[in-house]
Structure formats: C-alpha cells, structure tokens
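Supplementary Methods, section 5.1.

A reviewer requested that the exact input to the structure prediction be made available. We therefore reproduce it here, unchanged from the version used in the analyses.
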Amino acid sequence: MLSFYGLTLLALNGNSLNVPKVDPGPLCWFQHVCLSEGDNKLDEVRDKLKTPMECYNECSKMTACKFFTFRELNSHTVCELLTRCNNEGQCSDDQKCKSGPNDC
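The structure derived from this sequence is encoded token-by-token as follows.
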C-alpha cells in the first residue's frame, strides 16, 4: 500500500487473488505434452478420469501439482499430476493428449 498526496494506493497482482487467466481448456493448455521424468510425477490416475478437464481439476486440488498430462489410448486413460514441465514431448494425435498448468 502506498500513500501519495493523501490518497492510498493498493497494487494488486491478479494471481494473488486467484483470478483465472483464461477458462481452463484449449486456450490455456499447451501444444506440447509435459513428460513425467524423474521426481516430477506426484501421482498417476489410470482409467478413472475420462477427460483432460477432469485431469486438470484433479491437479488443481493438490498444492504441489503445477502441471498435468492427460493421455487416452484404446479407451484407456492416464492422468499424470506433475510438479514441473521441464521436457516437452509430442503426441501423435493432439485430441488424445493434453498438458497444461493447474492455474488457468
């Protein structure tokens, strides 16, 4: 808070108020896939979550989860909850793989 000529000014950062940047979904998610390598995978949920949005929501529930990767192959799904997205991979069909941050 700053006082300037008797006026009180308060600078706010939008993220400190947990204001979304954009709606979760394709506008927020990456063109690449975050790879799970080493110690960046917190958890892996198999065949329980059916959409990238459900995977995003699962990641948003965990403080340590900063990124997610959702994959679908032959009616099986995998949601990886990640602490970071250091390495980027590609998916053969972008409708079957999605990655993104937990804070859209």
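The two ends are 27 Å apart (CA to CA). These observations are discussed further in the main text.
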